[in-house]
Predict the 3D structure of the following.
Amino acid sequence: MIHVAGSFEREYLFPAPRAAAFAYYANFPGIVPHLPQIALTRTYRENQYRLAYTATELSLYHIKIYCDVQVIPDRRAWRLRVQPLPGHPPVKSVSGLSSTHAQGQYSSESIFHDEDGNTRIQYSLNLRADLPTPLALALMPGALLDEIAQTVTGWRMATIAEQFIQRTLA
């Protein structure tokens, strides 16, 4: 197994009043396309979804992580949480020669603060999964694979979050 985990936190200023910013980000199906490498693949119910994170690493290894999530908007606290959704069958973990996919856990949180007619948003993003090792990497020591995966996943989460912020601001 390859253990991957990545997270990112950042504050940024959104050019709209807090109520408008909150409504914009609470529209989860409308906001997901701004997350690079993450796609909405299924809607279970209102505010309950399956996401898929897809990446190709080293131009050779194809990775897909599926995550079931629920969106919890809390307008009283001006907090928008996306957390793992229990109760749905996970995808079956599969690996091939240069591919792997499995179920993972995605979460994010946005906290909205008024700031002179704009909104300061505290944003955090997390992704975790245990992936079966592709056959082409089977002889590589597990600790080394995990270390490489941690480095790459941390970098990917920072890139995803930064691009998400830039796209939503645009």
The chain has a mean pLDDT of 91. The first strand starts at residue 2 and ends at 14. The radius of gyration is 17 Å. The CA atoms of residues 90 and 103 lie 6 Å apart.
